[in-house]
Amino acid sequence: MSKLKLQFCSGPSLQSSFDKNQIILQGNQQDPISSLQQENLINLGNTEQKRRSNYAGDRFIPTIKKKFSILTETKAPAQDIASSQAALEMLYKQQILNQDPIMESESGSLKFINQNNFQYKNEHVHYIDSIDPKNYNSPLVDHKYFALPETISSQYGKYIRKIPKVPFKVLDAPQLQDDFYLNLIDWSTYNTLSVALNNSVYLWNAQSQKVTKLLDLCNDVVTSVGWSLRGPLLGVGTNNGEVQIWDACKLQKVRTFKSHTARVGTLCFAESILSSGSRDKLIIQRDIRQKEDYFFKSLAHKQEVCGLKWSPDSQLLASGGNDNKLYIWSSAQYDKPIFKFNEHQAAVKAIAWSPHQHGLLASGGGTADKTIRFWNALEGRMLSKEDTGSQVCNLMFSKMENELISTHGYSQHQIILWKCNGMKRIATLIGHTSRVLYLAMSPDGYTIVTGAGDETLRFWSIYTQSMGNQQNSKCQLAPHNISIR
C-alpha cells in the first residue's frame, strides 16, 4: 500500500526542492502518481505556504468549518475514490474560495456557482452568457446548478429542493369551460386573479381572499381575459367578437371594440398596445389610448388564432393558430410576419418567451404533436424539441430560475416543471381530473394556479421564500378550499 505524504521543510539545503515543499512517495512502484496529481499537490502546498506567511509564529492551524471522520487505509473501489475526490473538490471551494453551492441530485461532474470571480467547470461544458446570434446555439443554459454523484449529494439534503406534490389551495370554479382554444384566467401585477366563468368574470384578491364579480354579459360568453402590464386594466374577449376594457379598481367598463366577427380566444398587452386573436383568423392591433378601434389587421393564419404572446421588451409578437403554424411579428412591421414556422403537427396555443435569455421562445403543440420546441426568434430557427407524450396546453417560464412550466391534456392531465438545462423533469404535479387548460403565475413568481375542465382552480407552491432574496411575498394564500363564486 502506497502512502502519499506532504512535508514542509525549512532547512537551507532544501531551497530548490519544490519551493520548500517536498513530496515523498513511499511504497510499491505499482501505484505511480501522475504528473497532474503532483502538480495539484505542489499548488496546494504553495497555497498553504502563502497562507502561513500571513500569520505570526511558527505554527499555522487552519480552522475547518466542517467535521470529518478519519478514513481507514483500505483499498477503495474506483467509484468511492471518485466520490471522495468530488467531496474534496467541494470542500476546497467552500473553505478556500468561500462559495456556498446549491446542490441537486443528478449524475455528472462537479460544477460551482461563480460567486467570487472564480469559475470551475469541465472543458466539455459550454455556457452561453448572451443571445449573440453568433454563439446562440441552445436554450439549454443553466448557470445556477452544479451536480455531484448520488453518493455525495445524498449527504447534503438541505441543499436539495423539494416541491410539494399536492396543491395547497383549491378554488371551486363552476362552469369553467373545457375548451382548448380559450384563455380564461390571468394574474395581474396587483395580485388579483381574474377568472371567466361562462358569461361572468370574477376577481379574486390573493391577499384579502375576497371575491368580486366584475361583469355579467347578456346573450354572450367570455372567451378570454388578459391583464395590462401596469395598472388595473383588464381586457375581456367575448364569443360575439367584442373586446372590452375594464377598470378593475372602479369596476366599470372603459371601452368596447367591435373589430372581430367571431370569438376572441386570446388577448395580450404590450404597454398601451392590445393584441387580440380570433376565430375569424385575424390578429388585430389597437392602441387603447387612441379613439380608433384598431390601427392594423393581420390576416396570416388560415384557421383560428389561439395563442398570442409579446416578448418581454414588447418588440416581438408570437402567434399560434389552429393551422399548426407559429409566426413571429415585429412591432415595426405588422403587415407580414418576419418568421414562419410550420414544424408543429397540431394547434399551437402554448407560447412563452424567456425572461432570462433575450429572443428565446418556447411553443407547444396539441394532441397530434405533443412536443415543446425552442426557437431563436432573432435568427428564425429551431434550437431543440422535447416530446412530452401528451397534449401541451400551456407554457410559462419561471421568473426566478431558468425553468419552464408546462400543463398537459390528453391523456395525462399533469403539470411538469422542467429544468431548461437538458430539459430534465424537476417535478410532475398531478391533481386535476381533466386536461389542464389554463395557467397563470403570481406576481412574485412563487406560486402558479392551474384551471381545468373539472371546474377547479388549484394553487401550487413551485418555490419557497428561502430561494428568493428574502423579499416580502405579495401573495398570501390560506390553505383551505373556497368557491370562486
UniProtKB/TrEMBL annotation:
Q: Per the record's keyword annotation, is Electron transport included, yes or no? A: no
GO BP annotation list: anaphase-promoting complex-dependent catabolic process; positive regulation of anaphase-promoting complex-dependent catabolic process
Lineage, broadest ranks = Eukaryota, Sar, Alveolata, Ciliophora, Intramacronucleata
Say yes or no: keyword Cell cycle present.
yes
Q: Which domain of life is it from?
A: Eukaryota
What is the protein's given name? CDC20/Fizzy WD40 domain-containing protein
* Membrane-spanning intervals of the chain: none
Q: One GO cellular component from the entry? A: anaphase-promoting complex
Q: Please report the residue spans annotated as repeat (WD).
A: 298-330, 341-385, 429-470
Molecular-function GO term, any one: ubiquitin ligase activator activity
Q: Where is the CDC20/Fizzy WD40 domain?
A: 171-460
Q: For this UniProt record, give its keywords in alphabetical order, as a comma-separated list.
A: Cell cycle, Repeat, WD repeat
